[in-house]
Amino acid sequence: MISVSDVSKVYSLESGDFYALKNNNLHVRKGEFVAIMGPSGSGKSTLLQLLGGLDLPTSGQIVVDGVELSTLNEKERTLFRRTKVGFVFQNYQLLPMMTVGENISLALSANNAPKAKIKSVVEKLLADVNLQGKESAFPSQLSGGQQQRVAIARALAMKPSLILADEPTGNLDRKNGEDILKLLSKLNKEEQITVVMVTHDQQAAQTADRIIFVRDGLIVEEGRKGGYQNETLANRMV
Ligand code: ADP
Questions:
Q1: Per residue in 51-95, pLDDT tens?
Q2: Residue 105 Cα to ligand 1 middle (Å)
Q3: For ligand 1, atom 15, which residue shows the shortest CA distance?
Q4: For residue 198, what are the domain limits?
């Protein structure tokens, strides 16, 4: 599903070249749920942005669902993001002036889907995330957990094969965080959607099949589910 080969991301700074990621390799199978952990500034978000085609690597190859991302032009990359990848962010990134229904259907509208189809897709997605009847509400009228569920519904609108989540539970209390993880896990198991999730939360990471640790721009270690005690995970975060 995802193949990262010898990928580096270099930022040119006044002080010289800075490697946010250095010569990394990573393979994720279709239907896998992978957590990425590591200290702040280690390159986790950069990696997620590259996987989602939000940015391009300085060198190396990234293939997602059979598509080599650096061969795409700007327009093709936008289409790739819109149709193949669902993004979920820590701060939800819903548009405040739009209703829940409009936020969820943005990509469908952009692809000129008919109104009736949009309505039925929005209703189904709201049911999937347990927010029936909220299509006319505005994001500010919802709790954080509800907003994140809207964001997940939006991510699912185009039936993506991949969900990329950057600290999806970072702004939520434990109960709401657990609900979001359960939802991601359900989508992963039942719909075979591949999930790659950056998290600081050890319990959240244990939801994944595999945990990948990033440090100073390098993927340094991988662990299988249940292979780490929380204490060990905590040591990897500093
Ligand atoms: P993490 O998600 O693990 O906290 P990031 O991927 O956001 O880390 O950042 C990795 C490193 O790359 C950090 O040192 C950060 O300052 C640097 N970085 C990220 N984006 C840019 C940019 N646009 N220009 C320069 N440096 C950047």
A1: 999 999 999 999 999 999 999 999 999 999 999 999 999 999 999
A2: 31
A3: 41
A4: 2-236
Which residue lies with its CA nearest to atom 10 of ligand 1?
A: 43
pTM of the entire predicted model: 0.92
Query: Residue 43 C-alpha to ligand 1 middle, in angstroms?
Result: 6
* Average pLDDT score over the chain: 92
Q: Tell me the percentage of the chain whose pLDDT exceeds 90.
A: 88
- Provide the domain count of the chain: 1
Q: Report DSSP state, residue 144.
A: H
Task: Write down the residue that tokens 């989508």 correspond to.
Answer: 187
Q: What is the pLDDT of residue 222?
A: 73
Q: What is the model's pLDDT at position 31? A: 96
Provide residues with CB under 6 Å of ligand 1. Answer: 11, 18, 20, 38, 40-46
Rounded distance between C-alpha atoms, residue 125 and residue 238, angstroms: 38
Q: Among positive and negative, which fits the CA dihedral 90, 166, 1, 34?
A: negative
Cα–Cα distance measured from residue 19 to residue 11, given in angstroms and rounded to the nearest whole number: 6
Within 13 A of 139's CA, how many CA atoms are on the CB side? 18
Whether 18 shows a pLDDT value over 90: the answer reads yes
Name the residue with the closest Cα to ligand 1, atom 25.
11
Q: Residue 168 Cα, ligand 1 centroid: separation in angstroms?
A: 18
Which domain CATH number covers 10?
3.40.50.300
Ligand 1 centroid–CA 57 distance in Å is 13
Alpha carbon of 41 to ligand 1 centroid (Å): 6
pLDDT of residue 175: 92
Mapped onto helix, strand or coil, the DSSP state of residue 75 is helix
